[in-house]
Write a structure and sequence with these properties.
4-stranded antiparallel sheet; mainly beta; disordered N terminus; globular; about 190 residues; 9-stranded antiparallel sheet
């Protein structure tokens, strides 16, 4: 399978400053370097953990994995113009074992709440200092450490249950026919 990102990307940090657009990339999925395990299968949306390695940095994502179940996803289960917990139930968390650059912007090693703000044609990927919260109900943008703007891609392949993947140096949230990618590199 190949995800093609036919887009340009802009990044911004917590101060709102933007970088220049980055050309689109094509990422083959033959260099997958991650594992996914179910850590709690009791909820309807099982709790999963994806662990992978990018440039010697361990990336760990903990998330509730909802299923499509024939429902429309974009601008429905993933609402436009509203911060989303990027999964089900508790907020998704992401942890980096070392300092990294996300889309070229510095982010210190540590654990973060992982949120997205989706709009038609773009997604703001948000790393928030509050990682222990239920959903996005108490989301506070003033606690954002970093946010970057990316363009989701659409794939012909259907992904029934939401997951996170690592392909080369890119972490992707994948669900239904949508992939929300962001580049990670060791700082």
């Amino acid at each position: 399978m190949v995800f093609t990102f036919a887009c340009t990307k802009k990044t911004s940090d917590a101060t709102g400053s933007n970088s220049v657009n980055v050309p689109a990339t094509t990422i083959p999925t033959n260099k997958e370097a991650y594992t996914i395990k179910v850590i709690d299968d009791a909820p309807k949306s099982p709790r999963k953990q994806m662990v992978g390695l990018i440039d010697g940095v361990t990336v760990t994502v903990n998330y509730g994995s909802p299923a499509v179940k024939g429902r429309p996803i974009l601008n429905n289960l993933i609402p436009y113009g509203k911060v989303w917990r990027s999964g089900a139930n508790e907020a998704t968390t992401i942890e980096f074992s070392k300092d990294v650059k996300i889309e070229g912007k510095m982010l210190k090693a540590g654990k973060y709440g992982f949120f997205t703000l989706n709009n038609e044609g773009s997604t703001e990927v948000i790393f928030n200092s509050v990682h222990d919260q239920w959903g996005a109900y108490d989301f506070n943008a003033q606690k954002n450490v970093l946010s970057v703007i990316v363009r989701p891609s659409v794939s012909a392949a259907h992904v029934e249950s939401m997951d996170f993947k690592i392909v080369n140096n890119t972490v992707m949230l994948v669900w239904e026919k949508v992939a929300i990618p962001f580049e990670v590199e060791a700082a």
